[in-house]
Design goal:
The complex is a heterodimer of chains A (150) and B (432). Chain A contains six helices and three strands; from the N terminus they run ααβββαααα. Chain A has a single domain, classed as Sufe protein. Chain: A, CATH 3.90.1010.10. A three-stranded antiparallel sheet of chain A has the order 1-2-3, with helices on one face. By secondary structure, chain A is an alpha+beta fold. Chain B folds into two domains: 158 residues, Aspartate Aminotransferase, domain 1 (Alpha-Beta Complex); 258 residues, Aspartate Aminotransferase, domain 2, CATH 3.40.640.10. In chain B, β1 and β2 form a beta hairpin. By secondary structure, chain B is an alpha/beta fold. Chain B starts with 29 loop residues before the first helix and ends with a helix. In chain B, the strands form five sheets. Chain B has a seven-stranded mixed sheet with strand order 4-10-9-8-7-5-6, sandwiched between helices. Chain B has a four-stranded antiparallel sheet with strand order 13-14-17-16, covered by helices on one side. The chains are: A alpha+beta (150), B alpha/beta (432). At the A-B interface, α1 and α3 of A face α12 of B.
C-alpha cells in the first residue's frame, strides 16, 4: 500500500487531473508523436526551440495518470531550460524512475520530478513515465519519427 | 479455500453491499474444481490470487500439467516417423488427442482437425491457402466490427494483395451485430465470411448459426473464430454447419502454442498446403513433390506434440465437468458481477449485449484502465487493461482502452467481491 501511495502521490494525481501546458503550440518548430501501441498511451509534444533554449513546451494526447502527469511535470520543468540542461534532466529522470539514483541526493536539481521515484517499484510502468521524456528528447534533437518506449 | 475476510481494506467496507449471502441456483462445486488448479493457491503481493484474466489465457488443471510431464518422462519421441517403441507411443498419444478434440467439437472425421499454433495461425492458414487460391480482384470478404486483430489483419493483407474488398458488419451501442445490415452486405461478390463467435473485449455471443445460414444461402463459406467460445459453451461444428472453426488451446485450459483449425473435408482437400516441409509430403524429388493427405498436408515439420496431447486432455477435462454446467454457472457469476459493478458510481460497462459470455469490460470515470490495473494488482487481482487487440471496437465506443475482468468456471463470488473492493480502493486513491 505504501508503494502504491508513493506511486500515486498527490502531485501526480493533480497533474493527471489538471495537466499543465496541455495545448497545441501553433507554429511550433518541433513536434513529435509519442505512442505506445500496446498500452495505448498517445501524446504529441510541441516544442519551440530558439537558440538552444526551450522557449515553450506543451503536449496533447491521452494515456494513464503516470504518463500524463509525467508529460505535464516535464513541460513545467523544462520550459526556459537550455538544451544542455534538458539533456541532463532527461538523464536524471531516467535514473530516478529506474531506481538507479536516489532522488533525495539531488532534490535541488530534480525539484518536483523527484515524485516519480515511486515508479521504480513498478517496472512495467517505467515505459509510461518515460514516454513523454523520450518524445521530448527526440524533438530536442530534431528527430521527427514516432517514439515508443515499449 | 478463499475467504473474503482475508482481504480487508479499511474505511471502505461500509460502501460495499453485502453479497456473500447471495446463493447461486446452480449446484456447481467450485471449491472442488479449484483444487484441480495448483496455481490458484498462490498469493500475489501477500494477497490470495484473484485471477480474472481468463480471456487472455486460462490456468491449467493438474491433469494437463501431469500429461505434459508424463509425455516427457515416458513417451517423448518424434511422431509419424520412427518404427521404434517410443515413436509409436508418442504418435498414438498425439493422434489420440486429435480424436479427443474431434469428439469435443463433434467433427465427423479426425482428418478435419488440423493442429496449428493457435486461432491466429488457423485464420492465417485459411487466408493464405483458401483465400489466395479463390479470392479474385473485386471480390468481397465480410468480417464484423468486433473482430480481434487476428481476424482483421490477415484478411486486410489478402485484400491488398488481391484487390479485394473488406466489408464490416456494424454493431449497436450494446455491442450486438446488426444482422439486417449483414443481410445488406451479402451479395454475389461476397466470397467469404469470417466472424467471431464470442467477442473477447465485449463478451457478446453472436448468432453465428444464423450468420452461417445466411451466407450459405449465397453459397459463401464461413469461418468462425471460436477462441473465446469453446471454453464457455458447447460447440458442435456440424450443427453450426460452419466451414471452418478455429480456437486456441491455452484459452481452454490447455498449453500455449497449440490450437485447432477445423475445416470441412471437401474444402481442406482442394486447398493447397500452407507451409512446405517434412510430414506434409508423400514423395519428394527435385522435379516434383506429391503432397500428403489430410491432415498431414497442413502440418509441416515436427509438431507441438506435448501441446497437442495437453490440449486433448484439457478438452476431456472440460467435457467431464460438462459445458452446459459450466455455462450455467458462469452465467450466474456474470449476472452477479454485472450487478455488483453496475452499483459502482462512475463505472460504465462496455458491452451490454443480451447474449453474453462471462467477459466484463468497463471504464471508470477519471481513471485510466492502466492505473486501475496497477492498483488492483497490488490487491492480488489480475485483470487485463488496454485495447484487447480490438482497436476498432475501442474506436467504436470512443474510448482508448478498457479494464476487463474475464471469468472462468473456477472463479467465485468472492473473486467478484474482491474486484469490487479493489475498484473502491482505486476510487479512494484517485478521489473519484
Amino acid at each position: 500500500m505504501d508503494e502504491l501511495r508513493e506511486l500515486y502521490q498527490q502531485v501526480i494525481l493533480d497533474h493527471n487531473k489538471n495537466p499543465r501546458n496541455f495545448r497545441k503550440i501553433e507554429g511550433a518548430n518541433r513536434k513529435v508523436e509519442g505512442y505506445n501501441p500496446l498500452c495505448g498511451d498517445h501524446y504529441f509534444i510541441y516544442m519551440q526551440l530558439e537558440d538552444d533554449v526551450i522557449k515553450d513546451l506543451s503536449f496533447e494526447g491521452e494515456g494513464c495518470a503516470i504518463s500524463k502527469a509525467s508529460a505535464s511535470l516535464m513541460s513545467s520543468v523544462l520550459k526556459g531550460k537550455t538544451k544542455a540542461e534538458a539533456e541532463m534532466l532527461f538523464q536524471r529522470f531516467h535514473e530516478v524512475v529506474t531506481g538507479r539514483l536516489d532522488p533525495t541526493d539531488h532534490l535541488e536539481e530534480l525539484g518536483k520530478l523527484a515524485v516519480f521515484a515511486g515508479v521504480s517499484e513498478f517496472p512495467v510502468r517505467v515505459k509510461c513515465a518515460t514516454l513523454a521524456w523520450h518524445t521530448m528528447h527526440a524533438a530536442l534533437n530534431g528527430r521527427c519519427e514516432t517514439v515508443s518506449t515499449e | 479455500m478463499k475467504a473474503s475476510s482475508n482481504i480487508t481494506i479499511p474505511n471502505i467496507t461500509e460502501q460495499l453491499t453485502p453479497r456473500s449471502s447471495t446463493q447461486f441456483r446452480t449446484g456447481f462445486d467450485v471449491e472442488k474444481i479449484r483444487e484441480d488448479f495448483p496455481i490458484l493457491k498462490q498469493r500475489v503481493h501477500g494477497k490470495p490470487l484473484v485471477y480474472l484474466d481468463n480471456a487472455a489465457t486460462t490456468q491449467k488443471p493438474r491433469v494437463v500439467i501431469e500429461a505434459i510431464q508424463k509425455y516427457y518422462t515416458e513417451e517423448n519421441a518424434n511422431v509419424h516417423r520412427g518404427v521404434h517403441f517410443l515413436s509409436e507411443k508418442a504418435t498414438q498419444a498425439y493422434e489420440g488427442a486429435r480424436s479427443r478434440i474431434r469428439r469435443f467439437i463433434n467433427a465427423s472425421k479426425d482428418k478435419e482437425i488440423i493442429f496449428v499454433r493457435g486461432a491466429t495461425e488457423g485464420i492465417n492458414l485459411v487466408v493464405n491457402s483458401y483465400g489466395r487460391k479463390y479470392i479474385q480482384p473485386g471480390d468481397e470478404i465480410i468480417i464484423s466490427a468486433m473482430e480481434h486483430h487476428s481476424n482483421i489483419v490477415p484478411w486486410q493483407m489478402l485484400c491488398e494483395e488481391k484487390g479485394a474488398k473488406l466489408r464490416i458488419i456494424p454493431m449497436n451501442d450494446a455491442g450486438e451485430l446488426l444482422i439486417d445490415e449483414y443481410e445488406e452486405l451479402l451479395n454475389e461478390r461476397t466470397k467469404f465470411v469470417s466472424v467471431v463467435q464470442v467477442s473477447n473485449s465485449l463478451g457478446t455471443v453472436n448468432p453465428v448459426r444464423q450468420i452461417i445460414q445466411m451466407a450459405h444461402n449465397y453459397g459463401i463459406p464461413v469461418l468462425i473464430d471460436g477462441a473465446q467460445a469453446v471454453q464457455h459453451m458447447p460447440v458442435d461444428v456440424r450443427d453450426l454447419d460452419c466451414d471452418f472453426y478455429v480456437f486456441s488451446g491455452h484459452k481452454i485450459f490447455g498449453p500455449t502454442g497449440i490450437g485447432i483449425l477445423y475445416g470441412k473435408e471437401r474444402l481442406l482437400e482442394v486447398m493447397p498446403p500452407y507451409q512446405g516441409g517434412g510430414d506434409m509430403i508423400l514423395s519428394v524429388t527435385f522435379e516434383k513433390t506429391i503432397y500428403n493427405t489430410l491432415p498431414a498436408k497442413f502440418e509441416a515439420g515436427t509438431p507441438h506434440i506435448e501441446g497437442g496431447i495437453g490440449l486433448g486432455v484439457a478438452v476431456d477435462y472440460v467435457s467431464k465437468i460438462g459445458l452446459d454446467a459450466i455455462a450455467a454457472y458462469e452465467q450466474e457469476l456474470l449476472k452477479y458481477a454485472t450487478e455488483a459493478l453496475s452499483e459502482i458510481e462512475g463505472l460504465r460497462i462496455i458491452g451490454t449485449a443480451k447474449e453474453k459470455a462471462s467477459v466484463l469490460s468497463f471504464v471508470l470515470e477519471g481513471v485510466h484502465p492502466h492505473d486501475m490495473g496497477t492498483i488492483l494488482d497490488t490487491e492480488g487481482i489480475a485483470i487485463r487493461t488496454g485495447h484487447h487487440c480490438t482497436q476498432p471496437v475501442m474506436q467504436r465506443f470512443g474510448i482508448p482502452a478498457t479494464a476487463r475482468a474475464s471469468l472462468a468456471f473456477y472463479n467465485t463470488k468472492e473473486d467478484i467481491d474482491a474486484l469490487v473492493r479493489g475498484i473502491y480502493k482505486v476510487k479512494e486513491i484517485f478521489g473519484s
